[in-house]
From TrEMBL, chain A:
Pfam families: AllG. InterPro entries: AllG-like (IPR009499), OXTCase_su_AllG_h-dom (IPR024033). This is DUF1116 domain-containing protein. It comes from Trujillonella endophytica.
TrEMBL record, chain B:
GO terms for cellular component: cytosol; succinate-CoA ligase complex (ADP-forming). One of its GO terms (molecular function) is succinate-CoA ligase (GDP-forming) activity. PANTHER family: PROTEIN FDRA, SUCCINYL-COA LIGASE SUBUNIT ALPHA. This is FdrA protein. Residues 325-479 form the ATP-citrate synthase/succinyl-CoA ligase C-terminal domain. GO terms for biological process: tricarboxylic acid cycle. InterPro entries: SUCC_ACL_C, Succinyl-CoA_synth-like.
């Protein structure tokens, strides 16, 4: 609208502040929309003003969003981590911001112990603990290596990784293979059965998937599967049922074909297919690197207040923003609220853990709750709650992702690209759907529910971004 | 024929798209569908089979048309249909917008719209910036907005081709719609650019009393013409009014502008097709009433007798001083400019010269004109045009002080203002006047069409013994006359 249009006719008015003016406008028959304004949830008003007035910010956020939305995701390979990541031996990757063994929570410790035993770096739990505490085994965040991992996210050299590529912008991202539910390493379990299962994944599942993926004529378009999931009742974080079945549909001809082409025993292939078909979260480990490709594409735009990472290590929640590079802003991880398996209760739950909040960073998961009415009860809510959650998230985000359409909202694109400034101004924190690990190492999964980041992450990010705006 | 990856829409939606695009002139066949084997067979049957291998996640867009133009049009129509956002009708979960940005985003359609921001000053800039980013003009009513924020907002607004009205000048009438503090004035040929809120109300109400209406009133903020801000909103508002077919004459109302800015505004005004008259209050400039009278002369309209209820002309006590208790800053300035040459020094919380300042002592003795709407006095409370408490206290304190005085008040009517200011003022005046001899003179700024009604308010105030004038200049001169000065 130009200034000339301003005078073209009686305007519709959007008003924030004292209601006496809105009342006077209504008395004149005007079309008035009142904003439910309230003071920002946090942040120094001077910082908010500096960012609101930063002339770089609108274009920077547009650039970041364009890159994020343009990113594609195809499955190019499956390879052992040691061939892919280029990290020194005896390094374990983990979810969330950097953490030392001394600060690690139960499930992260459990997963690290399990990985040491799996790699043969220790022969007993006690020895593994000593070696982790002494620094003999080195810890680094997955996110520092273009990698993401659900829950504890522990990734060791012998584990196989999904290798994904953004065909548009050339990015790459990696994620380990999903182990299934229950007592699993990512939930902090490290018993004999867990290690046996990891060995099967290393010796059978990984090689079969690699051969199958390499034999496919067209690489799997993982982003397209994610888009279709939202039309089928999944939100891509806590519900991956449709996506997992679609992945099975995509992979199974190639897997079955291995019987002839490489002489794999049909019983072994059947075992692989049975595992994939029975694992409702099989697709999560494909969805997460897809989201990672997109949010990585939005990195490093000076002046952009878009969130590129939300992630938790079980002790701390950390975020990164486009305008501040790979710097972490952290606060204490909250404990999710939700429903519990069996006899477990709230006291058994560990604080929030996992890189899987990359899904919400990408605008699905909790942000697309409206797409997944089937899970709202499992994560402790109602269908109207789910719709309202997604509606709220539109006010935190910079864009609607046309590729991720939400049917019940009239195929409106999912709310995508969290803006730190909007989080502060609305006082609404991002909504994350999540699994819950037991707080005691070795327990495994205890439930699933909803969680939010601690406000501190966004407070620090806001202050740092404002410093950048002033210095620019 | 094209295959697209990373796009997914359900089959019903795609059938609608195919049907709508197929109905276009020059289009002979359309199939927009996911590239499933079934749909590929369908496409082949229509003679539109893709040359390259397709997979079910890809979107098949197959169109045949009579010529390239029809084909290009059909492809564009597919794009538009796929991108079209369908607003939710299923959700009853209306989540209220918390920011101006979200509120503007939620508006259906793209007709004329603007934002009004009256949140506390430190937070106002983010809301105003939302409006500018959305390509909408904004009336920034909030006070306490730092000048550097004003400068940055107006710079962004110029780049976006929108107007920031304000801060510290809560008046605008856009296409007959009164925003913020403004009066129900008739529509007509005069466009007003105002760096003064109550100044704009005074001149628009006097024009209305003379039978002349306004096209638009664009408040540009009390600091717009200072050297620090440099007049960007004034220049843009002038240009917009010059382009407006309904505007035949322009009046710029302000306090004295910074010389360099005044020069630039004068240069811009000289370049317009529409005649521009300035009403810049100052020691050597005509008062606002005189400026309106001059404009009426330009328009060939006779100057009427301005509405008044002068009353009997009650004598002041010997040695009486002028006590002006104003809610409008510009009206207070005008009173001081008129009183100074007659009375000598008039002190104020918003003095004409720094040495006449009284600090925070609102009960200082001697000639005094206060602006009770000044930022320093409205922190944490409503403007005195809405909340009379501060002025009622000052009247009671004056009566109790025993200092002989003539009381000069402004009462500003209109949208947004106190719905019945006389209701609170009449008993306060009666109580004060029961205690001591205290002649009261009121500048009543408003129109008959205002929600409060000029005559209703004037009659009530006159019945309480006040002398009432529609012109602040006349009211001030009347008060000076009661003090024995030259009227």
């Amino acid at each position: 609208m130009t200034l000339r249009d301003l005078l073209a006719g009686p305007p519709t008015v959007v008003a924030a502040g004292v209601d006496v003016f809105s009342a006077a406008l209504r008395a004149q028959g005007a079309d008035v929309h009142d904003v439910d304004w309230r003071p920002p949830g946090f942040g120094d008003p001077a910082d908010l003003a500096a960012l609101a007035l930063d002339p770089r910010r609108p274009a920077a956020n547009r650039t970041a969003v364009e890159r994020l939305l343009a990113a594609g995701s195809v499955l190019t390979d499956v390879r052992p981590a040691k061939e892919v990541l280029g990290v020194p031996g005896r390094t374990l990757l983990h979810a969330g911001p950097p953490i030392a063994w001394a600060d690690a929570s139960g499930p992260l410790r459990g997963a690290l112990i399990g990985a040491c035993l799996f790699e043969g770096w220790a022969s007993s739990v006690e020895e593994a603990q000593l070696r982790l505490a002494s620094g003999f085994v080195h810890l680094e965040p997955c996110h520092a290596h273009r990698t993401v991992g659900p829950m504890a996210g522990v990734t060791s050299p012998s584990m196989w990784l999904w290798c994904l590529e953004d065909p548009v912008q050339g990015g790459r991202a990696f994620c380990n293979l999903n182990e299934g539910l229950g007592k699993v390493l990512r939930m902090g379990a490290f018993g004999e059965d867990v290690l046996t299962w990891l060995a099967w994944m290393r010796d059978v599942l990984g090689p079969v998937l690699q051969a199958a993926v390499r034999s496919m004529h067209e690489p799997m378009d993982v982003k397209a599967v994610l888009a279709q999931m939202l039309q089928m009742g999944d939100e891509g974080h806590n519900r991956n049922r449709a996506g997992s079945l679609m992945a099975l549909r995509e992979l199974s001809p190639a897997i079955v074909g291995l019987a002839e082409s490489s002489g794999r025993a049909s019983g072994e292939l059947a075992e692989v297919l049975r595992f994939i078909g029975g694992n409702e979260h099989f697709f999560l480990n494909l969805g997460m690197p897809t989201a990672k490709l997109a949010t990585d594409a939005a990195r490093d735009v000076p002046g952009s207040t878009l969130v590129t990472v939300m992630s938790r290590n079980g002790t701390e929640f950390g975020i990164q923003t486009s305008g501040t590079g790979d710097r972490w802003f952290t606060g204490p991880a909250q404990t999710p609220v939700g429903l519990f398996l069996g006899d477990f209760g709230p006291e058994d739950a560990n604080p929030d853990i996992g890189d899987s909040a990359i899904m919400e960073t990408y605008g699905v998961g909790g942000f697309a709750m409206a797409a997944a009415p089937a899970i709202v009860r499992f994560v402790g809510g109602t269908v109207p709650d789910a719709l309202a959650t997604t509606e709220r998230m539109y006010q935190l985000t910079l864009a609607e992702n046309p590729a991720m359409a939400i049917p019940i909202l009239g195929f409106r694109g999912a709310p995508t690209g969290i803006d730190v400034v909007s989080v502060a101004r609305t006082g609404w924190l991002p909504q994350i759907n999540t699994g819950m690990a037991g707080r005691v190492a070795g327990t495994g999964q205890v439930g699933a529910g909803l969680v939010q980041p601690p406000r501190e992450c966004f407070e620090q990010a806001l202050a740092a971004l404002a410093r950048g705006a002033r210095a620019s | 024929m094209a295959l697209r990856s990373g796009v997914y829409a359900d089959s019903v939606r795609l059938m609608q798209v195919s049907r709508d695009v197929g109905a276009r002139d020059g289009v002979t066949a359309v199939l927009v569908a996911m590239a499933t084997p079934l749909n590929l067979d369908l496409a082949a049957g229509m003679g539109l089979a893709p040359a390259e291998p397709a997979s079910p996640e890809q979107l098949l867009v197959a169109i045949s048309a009579d010529d390239d133009a029809a084909l290009a049009g059909a492809v564009a129509a597919v794009e538009t249909a796929l991108a079209e956002r369908q607003r939710s009708t299923a959700s009853a979960q209306a989540v209220p917008a918390r920011t101006i940005g979200a509120g503007l985003d939620a508006l259906p359609g793209d007709g004329p719209a603007l934002a009004i921001v009256s949140v506390p000053g430190p937070y106002a800039v983010a809301e105003a910036a939302d409006a500018i980013a959305a390509g909408r003009s904004v009336l920034l009513f909030s006070d306490g907005v730092p000048v550097e924020h004003e400068v940055a907002l107006k710079r962004a607004a110029r780049a976006a081709g929108v107007l920031v009205m304000g801060p510290d000048c809560g008046t605008a009438i856009v296409s007959g719609l009164a925003l913020g503090f403004a009066n129900a004035v008739r529509r007509g040929p005069v466009g007003i650019v105002a760096a003064s809120g109550t100044g704009a109300q005074q001149v628009s109400c006097l024009l209305d009393a003379a039978g002349v209406g306004v096209s638009h009133v664009l408040g540009v903020g009390g600091r717009d013409l200072t050297a620090a801000v440099g007049g960007p909103a004034t220049l843009d508002a002038l240009a917009a009014l010059d382009d407006d077919p309904a505007t035949e004459a322009i009046l710029v109302v302000s306090k004295p502008p910074a010389p360099a800015v005044a020069l630039e505004v004068a240069r811009a005004a000289a370049g317009l097709r529409t005649p521009v008259r300035q009403a810049a209050l100052g020691p050597d400039a005509p008062d606002l009433t005189a400026a309106v009278e001059a404009l009426l002369g330009d328009l060939g309209v006779a100057v009427p007798d301005w509405p008044s209820r002068p009353g009997a002309g009650e004598a002041a006590l010997p040695g009486a001083v002028l006590k002006g208790l104003y809610s409008g800053g510009t009206l207070a300035d005008e009173a001081m400019l008129l009183a100074g040459p007659v009375l000598g020094d008039v002190r104020s919380n918003t003095p004409l010269r720094p040495e006449l300042g009284i600090g925070t002592d609102l009960a200082a003795p001697g000639h005094l004109v206060l602006d009770l709407g000044d930022d320093a006095l409205t922190v944490g409370r409503a403007h005195p045009m809405i909340d009379p408490t501060l002025r009622l206290e000052a009247i009671a304190a004056l009566a109790a002080s025993g200092e002989p005085a003539v009381l000069l008040l402004d009462v500003v009517l209109g949208f947004g203002a106190d719905p019945d200011p006389a209701a609170a003022l009449v008993p306060a005046l009666a109580a004060a006047r029961a205690r001591t001899t205290l002649p009261a003179v009121v500048a009543l700024v408003g129109t008959e069409a205002d929600p409060q009604g000029w005559s209703r308010q004037a009659d009530a105030l006159a019945a309480a013994g006040a002398s009432v004038f529609a012109s602040n200049a006349q009211a001030t001169r009347h008060a000076l006359g009661l003090l024995g000065g030259a009227a």
